[in-house]
Amino acid sequence: MADVDVAVVGAGFAGIYAVHAFRSAGLTVRAFEAGSGIGGTWFWNCYPGARCDVESKDYSYSFSPELEQEWSWSERYPAQPEVLRYLNHVADRFGLWPFIQLNTRVTGATWDSARSEWVVTTDDGAQRTARFCVLAVGCLSAYQVPSLPGLESFAGPWYHTSRWPRAGMDLTGQRVGLIGTGSTGIQVAPEIAGVASQLYVFQRTANFSVPNRNRAIDPEWERAFKANYRSYRKQAQESFLGVPLTGTGRPALAEPAEQIQRNLMERWQAGGGMPFLGAYTDVLVDRAANDIVAEFMRDRIREAVDDPQLAELLSPRAFPVGAKRLCQSDDYFAMFNQPNVTLVDIRTAPIDSVYPGGLRTSAASYELDALVFATGFDALTGSLTRIDVRGTGGVALAEKWAAGPRTYLGVATAGFPNMFMVTGPGSPSVLSNMVVSIEQHVEWIRDCVGYLGSYGFSIVEAKPSAEDAWMAHVTEVAHSTVFPLADSWYIGANIPGKPRVFMPYLGGVGPYRSRCDEVAAAGYEGFVLSV
Ligand SMILES: Cc1cc2nc3c(=O)[nH]c(=O)nc-3n(C[C@H](O)[C@H](O)[C@H](O)COP(=O)(O)OP(=O)(O)OC[C@H]3O[C@@H](n4cnc5c(N)ncnc54)[C@H](O)[C@@H]3O)c2cc1C
To answer: What are the pLDDT digits (tens) for 344-378?
Structure first.
């Protein structure tokens, strides 16, 4: 008999809820977490300025009406320490600690066909067996440092933002180099600029960013909002992005130009990326509509940045707005007016090497005391393929996915029985409010395992034909949008040698949920159930 019913790998939002949901369904569970604490993203990314860009009322669990009533968020967009406190509170409140093993990295998971169980190997050399293996390892958890010649010779400290020292890093009066201008780079830059003597922002690709308009939560507003939380959560689950939004419901291309400007400005003033990009129905599917919004955003950059040449350098032109993760910041562009901030264009003069005292581009040298990498992640697949996962016949997951990830519904992959992924590639995942997507997957997996038990089955495995059809659908939907036009991490473009496959599912959270429910209602259509 297996040691536990379910082995869960990872203890972020997904793993924490998985432990609770499976235990509540009467299953035995053990979760393994590489970190010394729970929280995943919100444990590791403790860099200054780390903040959620989905509102706290949305970016929180919905599974417990009591929890959502008890917990009060302090801000519209909570900072990392508050989200981490929330997740620790959840573990306390639901008594989850005994089932989570910290400081334990899963190095391998092998399907034993003879015994119909997974053998999970951890970095302490131990092995545990489980009937089911749930990989809750995170879409954005395998961090990526570019291989720069000479980095090992750098005399000062250097950190990736996802491995920021927990005790903090004092950059006061230092000359700091920041590499990476995605969501994280844009969050951390103004914080560093506030204390450093000099900040050099090394920019390869200018990025779009909308204001947060972050603010404290008003207790009166909170009381009124919480009175309708249940129906709000239902709307979120049925929505496109996992957040109920009110767009105009009209295409921009059918709207008079002044009206578009008025509408966009209203949303710009209100803050937040999702309501802004969701203003019109055609922005993410029609390049001409997208260009209108992009130009509106470039106008805002020109307003914020005093030097017109600098504003132009900061203005994204290489990709449609929204096709790369939209950044959010109240201070990023204006920060470049500070005398201690310099933008270095590494598109035209690429980084050449690091030397003990700084960094050299093909055009100049920059003396640095510290170096910060906000260079992102091997997204969606990295944390899965870094584990030696082996399915039927010893086939490695990394091998099966050599030309890009292949899944059925983003939750399972053929050849890997009784293995599930939470927010795997081929599901809405990073193109949604992830907490909504995580809950949906965990509940679907829990119900699938329950179904097997109720009907006398013990093994579930995706059919290759169902997987093929799903992948074709994921690709077709992606190519009906502007998303594939960007060199984004959605498509693996940030990792040298990674196959270019559009990985998340763009069909929307609500429709995706319905499809998953239909599959379940049809006795897990597209899966083989066996004993
Ligand atoms: C800086 C940042 C900001 C973000 N902001 C938002 C936001 O505003 N809204 C939004 O929807 N999403 C956001 N995200 C995405 C975020 O990752 C998800 O919302 C969510 O936190 C994912 O939870 P998870 O449990 O699936 O994965 P994670 O939180 O990544 O947790 C996975 C855990 O698995 C562990 N793990 C991985 N491999 C192993 C292994 N082999 N053995 C043991 N443990 C392992 C990791 O240590 C990690 O703790 C953000 C991501 C980042 C990086």
So the answer is: 999 999 999 999 999 999 999 999 999 999 999 99
245 confidence band (pLDDT: 50, 70, 90) = confident
User: Is residue 423 a contact partner of residue 429, using CB atoms and an 8 Å limit?
Assistant: yes
Count helices and strands in the chain by DSSP H and E runs: 17, 20
Return the best residue to mutate from 380, 434, 494 for the ligand 1 pocket (most ligand atoms within 8 A of CB).
Answer: 434
CA distances (Å), origin 19, targets 333, 461, 506: 42, 22, 28
Q: How, if at all, do strands 158-160 and 29-32 pair? A: unpaired
Distance 41 CA to ligand 1 centre (A): 4
Look at ligand 1, atom 5, and give the residue with the nearest C-alpha.
Answer: 52
Sequence letter at residue 172? T
Give the pLDDT confidence of 178-234 residue by residue, as tens digits. Answer: 999 999 999 999 999 999 999 999 999 999 999 999 999 999 999 999 999 999 999
Asked whether 427 and 139 are in contact (CB, 8 A), the reply is no
- Which amino acids bring their CB within 6 angstroms of ligand 1? 9-15, 32-35, 40-41, 43, 45, 50, 52-54, 59, 105-106, 136-141, 184, 383, 387, 422-423, 433-434, 438
Nearest CA to ligand 1 atom 29: 40
Cβ-contact 36, 103 below 8 angstroms: yes
* pLDDT tens by residue, 386-431: 999 999 999 999 999 999 999 999 999 999 999 999 999 999 999 9
CA distance linking residue 362 with residue 352, whole number of Å:
6
Q: Ligand 1 centroid to 43 CA: how many Å?
A: 9
User: Using one digit for the tens of pLDDT, what is the confidence trace for 434-468?
Assistant: 999 999 999 999 999 999 999 999 999 999 999 99
CA distance 469 to 184: 35
Q: Which residues contact 235 (CB under 8 A, 6 or more apart)?
A: 244
Question: For residues 474-501, b (16+ Cβ closer than 10 Å) or e, as one string?
Answer: bbebbeebbbbebbbbbbbebbeebeeb
Q: How far is the CA of 140 from the centre of ligand 1 (A)?
A: 5
Phi, psi of 8 (to 5 degrees): -110, 130
Q: What separation in angstroms does the CA of 426 have from each of 326, 412, 438? A: 20, 10, 14
Q: What's the average model confidence in pLDDT over 222-251? A: 96
